[in-house]
From TrEMBL:
GO MF terms, alphabetically ordered: asparaginase activity
InterPro entries: Asparaginase_II
Enzyme Commission designation: 3.5.1.1
Name the UniProt record assigns to this protein: Asparaginase
Lineage: Bacteria, Bacillati, Actinomycetota, Actinomycetes, Micrococcales
Annotated coiled-coil segments of the chain: none
Keyword Hydrolase recorded: yes
KW Hydrolase (keyword) present: yes
Enzyme class: hydrolase
Top-level taxon in the UniProt lineage: Bacteria
Signal sequence annotation: none
Length: 323
């Protein structure tokens, strides 16, 4: 197993006033539609915690075990949402459809990610809650899957619970990589390791899966259709994952904590990256450059790729990809 640090290479430089101020290192893999490696920086086979980039894969596992929801709710199952009103409405509806309530959620309470949503929530006299934590859509979908499959909802976060065993197997099957490590994610759910190439392979599989309307769509295709069709539900206003999916028709993209990003294209091409210092700042810039290497028109992603470096509120530089 390659160490995530020692095999990393520079992916982005931060330029301020014409001088390189800092450099972000990591790994990038770009897969062609046939699964062949088109670009590899660092080690594509490095083992990583993919964090929330695993959510679309977990959603496939839930669909395979009886989850039956509309595309908005499925997009929320894949989301790290802002907890804006539209997000919370869908989470509540997802729970109600399974005969459950917010009290059944067992994810870690937190404030909304969106600043305005957090301010409004606090103004109501509310504090950190499971509903407003960014993974509440995934947890609501997990609970709904338990109801559909006839599994107990109590203890649904336990790695030995039938739900989590099923999701473990789905991640391994979709990535083509055995799960070598399991830990606890920030939201309290089990987190499974994979390789960067495995993550890209899974997103390519989702991206190219047939996803026409109707019962003929596979679980992979249903997830792709939900994400591409409802990008706001996957993240929210101002978020780069939402903006990328709005800019590139058919693209599915999911960010993850600690510098992870993955994306899949309708032709089966795919991208995955890991910034080893865990910084979010270079992710959109690096992902956009990788998508261009995968065949996306640079003009489509230029606005999202632009990450200015500010001095007194004015751009004095930018985050630039090294490739």
């Amino acid at each position: 197993m390659t160490d995530v640090f020692t095999s990393a290479v520079p992916l982005a430089r931060v330029v301020r006033g014409g001088l390189v101020e800092s450099v972000h290192a990591g790994h990038v893999v770009v897969l062609a539609p046939d699964g062949e490696v088109r670009l590899a920086l660092g080690d594509p086979d490095v083992t990583v915690w993919a964090r929330s980039s695993l959510k679309p894969l977990q959603a496939v596992g839930m669909l395979r075990h009886g989850l039956d929801v509309d595309d908005e709710a499925l997009a929320l199952a894949c989301a790290s949402h802002n907890a804006q009103d539209g997000h919370l409405d869908v989470v509540r509806a997802l729970l109600a459809g399974a005969g459950l309530t917010e009290a059944d959620l067992d994810n870690t309470p937190d404030w909304p990610l969106d600043a305005d949503a957090a301010f409004a929530w606090r103004a109501q006299g509310r504090g950190p809650e499971a509903l407003t934590q960014n993974c509440s859509g995934k947890h609501a979908a997990m609970l709904a899957t338990c109801v559909a499959a006839g599994w107990p909802t109590a203890g649904y976060r336990d790695p030995g619970h039938p739900l989590q065993r099923a999701l473990h197997d789905a991640v391994a099957e979709l990535t083509g990589v055995a799960v070598a490590h399991t830990t606890v994610d920030g939201c309290g759910a089990p987190l499974f390791s994979t390789t960067l190439a495995g993550l890209a392979r899974a997103f390519g599989r989702l991206g190219r899966a047939p996803h026409d309307e109707g019962h003929a769509a596979t679980p992979e295709g249903r997830v792709a259709r939900a994400m591409a069709g409802h990008p706001w539900h996957v993240a929210g206003s101002g978020r780069d994952a939402t903006r990328l999916m709005q800019a590139v028709p058919g693209l599915i993209a999911k960010d993850g904590a600690d510098g992870v990003y993955a994306a899949g294209l309708p032709d089966g091409g795919a991208v995955a990256l890991k910034v080893v210092d865990g910084a979010a700042r270079p992710r959109a810039t690096v992902l956009a450059a990788a998508l261009v290497a995968a065949g996306v028109d640079a003009a489509q992603v230029a606005d999202v790729a632009a990450t200015p470096v500010l001095g007194h509120g004015v751009p004095v530089g930018a985050v630039e990809p090294t490739f």
